[in-house]
Amino acid sequence: MTTRTATAAVLACAALLTSPAAPTAFADAPDALQACGAYTEDRSTSREEALARTRTWLEAHVPYSQRACHENEHGSYRTDCSGFVSLAWGLDRSRPTSGLGEVSREIPREELMPGDALNSPGHVALFVRWEDGARTRPVVREHTGPDGEPVVERAWSPETAARYTPIRYDRIVG
Question: What digits encode the pLDDT tens for the residues 47-61?
Answer without folding.
Answer: 999 999 999 999 999
